[in-house]
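Q: For a teaching session next week I want to show students how multiple molecules come together into a single three-dimensional assembly. I've collected the sequence lines for a complex. Could you give me the predicted structure tokens for the whole thing so I can convert them for display?
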Amino acid sequence: MSKMQSLGSNNTLTGYAFIAPFAILLLVFNFYVFFSGFLTSLSDAQGINTGSFIGFQNFVDLLYADSAASADFWQAVRTTLVYTLGCLLTQVPAAFILAFVLNHIPFPRLKVVFRTAFFVPVLINTVVIALLFRMFFNTDNGIINWLMGMVGLPNSTEWLLDSSYAIPLLVVVSFWQWTGFHMVYFLSQLQTIDPSIYEAAKIDGASPLTVIFRITLPIMRPAITFVVITSTIGCIQMFDLVFILFPNAQYGPGGVAKTLIAYIYDQGFSQQFRIGFASAIGWLTFMLIVGLSFIQLKFFGLGQHDEI
Amino acid sequence: MKSEPTPTTQTSENITPGRPGMSWLRKVGIALLTVLALVYLYPLLWMFDSSFRPAIEIFQVPPKLFTGPPWETLSSYSLSSFMAALTKWDVGWSFFISIMVTLSGIVLTLLVCSLCAYAFAFLEFPGKQAAFMTILGSMMLPLMTMIVPYYKVLSTIGLTNNLLGIILPYSASAFGVFLLRQYYIKIPKALLESAQIDGCRHLRTWWHIILPTSKPALAALAIVQFRLIWNDFLVPMIVLRDESLFTLPIKIQLMDSQNFSKPYDVIIASGFITALIPLVFFLFFQRQFIEGLTGGLKE
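A: Of course. Below is the structure for the complete assembly, covering every listed component.
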């Protein structure tokens, strides 16, 4: 801190002026949005009608009331959580294994080629990805059914029309899109591990599995924590994929794959413009994200992730 | 690949606790990875291939590309999907809008965030620590959950159906302030003090010294913002109403929402254009991409 003072200490005004543009934008487009969303969630605002104050009625309707709204809400929570869990369980281990394998490739050029190959899907717009996979999973002329037929499996599965496949499809497409992204992060962290640690373990006669479980994984815990938490936050906010992947913006057959953000979009923008109600769903989703992040931090050991 | 790994690869040799007879395993592993990588890239290859084909060939299984030697399967290539995209759907204009929105979003982000990071790195003022922690904390706010009040705020200040509505909000990147501040506090003091003696004020120091010296960090932030703004979907979809303001993803969604005779050939060609820009940037600025994306938060 002492080196900071050498630039002179009387620059309070300059300091405020320099952070002002950022602070104003952050206040208006972040903090005020959350605050105003909370106020709106306490009203029955609809369309341009600002509505009247109804206390926590929207929240009660969503959480407790034995109504269609409550059933829809819990269905959306369930869909979102199943999707999130599916993503975590597939992407994180796969990304870790890929990073581990790539880290062992002794040819730097080849390593970069593989890293690039697995990374590029994350650069592609989700709308484009969802459209591509909708075509691939087409029953009659999609490549997936064609490939299944080639290897002698049933080749007329109605992937996009059978409700039991809806969430697995989302998990598959997200896997393709995000695994390489996590892999790159893991890889960058693996490369920071000091080789002398492995050297020491080798001298002590540790087996490869012991090395992975006793050395690599503990060292990687902050990175894994980071990926798990940011993925969870990202997955719960998923919208683009489910909106485009299934035909006619129906969120899967009978809307089975309607995620929380999709539910908000439906209520707030495309059906009856129930702004107050949709804001309440938004706040509940926000609380869900906060709660899950907190639990995950606890689970992975709070304070162990200083590097993040 | 016949020879043993060279001495420079000793680290990796050591990491795989040590059996010399592992090289066959490594060869199999690399072969498997190659197959996996090709499968992984197939969707993009298919999109590339399909955007040059007439509509009837796009949904052919097995894919036309695999049905014969290249001189036969590639003979139907043409630019007609791209021409239709330009003439019937005005995709060229959407492309221009996307470019302008992304560029101005990036420039604004860099200016706003670096000015703010300068204050946190070099200036002393009351409340500095608290303000910095607040900004860091805001990185965790999941804005998608507030999409409805977000729209309401935009409409209150008149930014709906306005490109500013999809540019301004992104420029306050908390991650950007964090990234740049980390970079600034490592800048040698001598550089700044000489500027002070010369009588430059802080604004000039920022513009003439800090911005030029922090190009790598600015590039990393620019790339993070580029990916974010270029690929943005939900916000532009709700904010923009006039078709003349549609960015590429929204234009694609519009084509896809046609109930009768969806122009799949045009959709794929437009998707190809949308995907191509970040891919090209990535190939040129791979290092900055990785730095920006691993330097902190995802989105």
